[in-house]
Write a structure and sequence with these properties.
This protein is an alpha+beta fold. Helices cover 31% and strands 22% of the residues. The protein has a domain of 39 residues.
């Protein structure tokens, strides 16, 4: 994907568009708002980070009562 700035001079905004295999007709030409794409990437990285961190947090097992 490649990033482009578009919109008017007073209200520019960013978009991402497919840049892979442009001449092979594998791109749809669809554009994605940069805010949406960046939010999705951020959420995905946060989820991966949380899952990764859980692997390093030991599971605490409650002590058994002595009878």
């Amino acid at each position: 994907m490649s990033y482009d700035r578009t919109g008017s001079k007073n209200k520019p905004y960013g978009v991402y568009r497919c840049s892979a295999n442009k001449n092979k007709e594998t791109c749809t030409g669809k554009v994605y708002p940069s805010e949406e794409m960046e939010r999705l990437v951020k959420e995905g990285l946060q989820n991966l980070s949380n899952e990764f961190a859980l692997g390093f947090v030991p599971t605490i097992t409650p002590a058994q009562e002595i009878t």
